[in-house]
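USER: If only I could read backbone structure tokens as easily as an amino acid sequence. It would mean a lot if you studied the pair and described how this chain folds. Here is the record:
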Amino acid sequence: MKNAAKKMVSVLLSAIMAGSFATASFAAGVKYGDTDLNAQINSADALAVLLHATDKESLTGDKLKAADVNGDGVINSSDALEILLYAVGKIDKFSVEKSVVTATDKELLSTYAEALKKARDEKPSYRIKSDSTIKDVDAKVSDPLGLLKLGGSSAAEMEVQMKDEMLDQSSTYQTIVRQKTSESSANLPAECKLTDPSVLASISAVKSANGNLKITIKFKDEKNPKAGSPVCKGLGMANYDEVAAEFAESSEIEGMTVKTSLDELSYKNSYIICEIDQATGEFVNLEWNTEMYTRTTMSMVVGVTAIMTDELHTVYSDFGY
């Protein structure tokens, strides 16, 4: 996953060249479905879930936990529908309440780490789909000497060209990784070295319909993370110093000296969702996600500041295919 840092560098440089599960940790009395914490479950709670799912409003804390009534770790219209059905008496219990797992956060974290180690050791075959979607770009070009104008261009035109070039770098990678190959372990997530669940945003688990254990691990957002940070230890993402070094290595473009610096690196909306066969301790499927936010400054004949958010999402399925 540290290769994401290298990709960031290549995206920015090519742009320059083109332009020139259920947790019981609620506060006392909080119930599933009660997203406004008023001790009543009705259509207003369902509406709050829909507004959250469409980014119109944001649920946090116990309100967010109460919204995940099906226990899949994702807040969407399915949760809103269950709340509506509950409110009109069509159901008397939410899906998450039917499949509560009685295990501590530390036990769940250990179960995930053990399943990942087992997968890496056994080198299973699996299908993998990895998406890198550049969600947003804000490029600012300064040209106080008017050098771009001499070439028939402008700072505003270069900003548009940079944004278009960077947005075009989104990619999807799909393949089948065969058993007992070096790729099998190399393409799996990095070993999870987390042992303290208190550094995470949340850990939850439910039993799926077929009896498997489904674990959701959510990370706190991190700014300029150090090597020992949760996202780095849990997801294997590059820390600030590693990414900064990658940018600093790119010091020349077509014979021109370029000074590059990483002003900020943040990881947001980072999570792991996995399903584990409790009988064997092996993954049934696994996915992880993070949004990698960078703000960089480059200077050559003109000055450039680029802010980019790249959502990295990988799904592993059909283990033992």
